[in-house]
Amino acid sequence: MKLLFLIDNLQFFRDVFRSPVLPRLLAVEGTEVIVASTYSADAIALEFAHARLRVHPLQPPRTNWLTDLAYSVAKDLYVLERPDGSFAQKRLVEADQHERRSLAVRMTLARLLRTLGFTSRAVMRWVEGVGVEPDFDALLQRERPDLVVFSTMLPGVGPWLKAARRQGIPIVLSVASWDNPTSKGPLLVPPDHALAWSEEMKRELVHFHRLPAERIAPVGVLYFESYFAAKDLPDRAAFCAGLGIDPACRILHYATGDSALIRCNQEFIRVLQRLIASGQLGEPCHLLVRVSPKDLFHLYKEFEGQPHVTVQYPAGSGTLYGAHKWLPAAGEERERAATVKHSDVILSVSSSMVLDACCFDVPVINLAYDAGMRVPPWESVDRFFAYAHCQPALASNATWVVKDDAALLDTLRLVLRDRSAKSPERRRMLERLVGFADGRTNERWVAALRRLSAAKTPAPAS
Fold first, then answer.
1. d(Cα 404, Cα 369) in Å, to the nearest integer?
2. The model's pTM
3. How far is residue 295's CA from residue 210's CA, in Å, rounded to a whole number?
4. Domain endpoint, select from 91, 126, 161
């Protein structure tokens, strides 16, 4: 068996190199793995080395005006085809930020194209042979892998996937994040097969991307797998000592989001500081601010060393904002798991941290207001709670959604009195969105690739 992993994002980098999948795959004699990646070969060499693993550096694909134009048209058609998805909802929010007239004109043209029988899938198929990346095409001709496995649903991987499609090599999507099926728009090259997190995600892939249900295998989340086998994490005393937190204090964990999208991160920290300092929570508390790797680290320097506050930056390198090439350090996963486990409550606007928390049965409070800031509607956090990908989590009633400081105070008091509140709901949400909590996702993932490799048949065009 010969597999080619196309790695151009952090999630898939973690899935491949921070899980047991490579050792499990290469334990079988004759298996070969090629890693084609935009990450440096040196960074990959530090993660894993094996005689049957080879690394091929990828350069950013060349732009192609015809493909770009076709994708622009396909996006407009896709909005009409799937108006219930997060992608369509986000485009309407973005249109509010600018002049809606431009979007109105484009939507009028898209409606006309629909009456003529055009679809987003058909438009992308017409340019499927255009814009193939020649270097990657040559790599595939030389290596002839059984499968090409990728994870991002963004259009940047299109030129590479087109090369695989042209050569008849089956393409397998391993979905990276919970929001991707609803929020990433039309696929430039539909995969032949998909590895989903859960039955819920499988349903989304069928509905939003018309992938055949029989070609989607729910396998779980590689990213969360270590959470369910977290036996070597520090105890609470050791964890608190490492951060200089009094272990007698209750830990309020604020998980920041991308400050380019969430304007009120810093103001929420100030709100929580005031609640702690006022003594209104009824017991001593400490605020642990964990900064997202996608966030701007310098925005949190002002909180360092302040009373009742600890700022935790994720251990890693390459933290330039927008580069999306941040790499977690070797101990980052363990640090993150311990931080989630020892938090008494996790607060965030709206992020996948909701699911991290449920893995450890930690209560979650979603902050559905702008912390007193006056922001235009397209920047208000209200928009996140309307997106399609958030609805299953909200429908589960596994979190508290608060809309002002008074509700936040009341909910914090409730949660600090009873950490088990909504525990059954959290368990049900975990089952629905994560799918598997047995620590064996790597086995299912590898077994699925072995099965698909043995079949070696791409799906028929649809």
1. 6
2. 0.91
3. 34
4. 126
